[in-house]
Structure formats: C-alpha cells, structure tokens
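Query structure, 97 tokens:
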C-alpha cells in the first residue's frame, strides 16, 4: 500500500473555501505554501502550516478575518496558528515576495 505525503497545500482550497476567500487570496496562499515547501524545512503539522499561511494572507489582504475565524474554518487551535505564524513571520518576504 502506497501512502502519499500530506502537504500543507493539500488543505488550502478547502480551508480558503470555508473562510469565503477569493481567488486572489487562494492563489497567494498557494504560492506561499509552494515557496515554503521548496525553501524551508518547517517541522509542523501540514494543517497548522496551511492555517498559519492563510492567516498571514488574510492579514496582508485586509480581509477582516481574525485568528478565531481561521481557527473555526480550519479546525486548528488559535494558539497553534499564532505559534506557527510567529515561526513563519521572519520568512514573510520569501513567502510573499
């Protein structure tokens, strides 16, 4: 039985859809996750990474979504999103260009 590796990108569309994000935000999140997966070795659950990236995207876009909104949509605890966000913030320039 061949089990594939689960990546943060596997969760993006579903999580973004639950938050009601537009195509632009989904595209930005997808690009950030792609860059992260290619350039960083982040030792976190893929769901946590996806939630943190989405939180970063909504903050940058001024989409009016709180960490609680992201938590409810993703099922990832607010504290986990905040911690992952804190770990990813130093890499924001690389993630979002």
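Result returned for the query:
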């Amino acid at each position: 039985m061949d089990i594939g590796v689960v990546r943060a990108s596997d969760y993006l569309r579903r999580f973004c859809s639950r938050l009601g994000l537009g195509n632009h935000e989904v595209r930005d999140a997808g690009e950030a996750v792609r860059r992260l997966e290619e350039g960083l070795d982040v030792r976190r659950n893929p769901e946590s990474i996806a939630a943190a990236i989405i939180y970063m995207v909504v903050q940058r876009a001024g989409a009016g979504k709180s960490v609680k909104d992201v938590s409810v949509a993703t099922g990832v605890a607010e504290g986990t999103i905040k911690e992952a966000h804190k770990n990813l913030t130093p890499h924001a320039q690389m993630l979002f260009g």
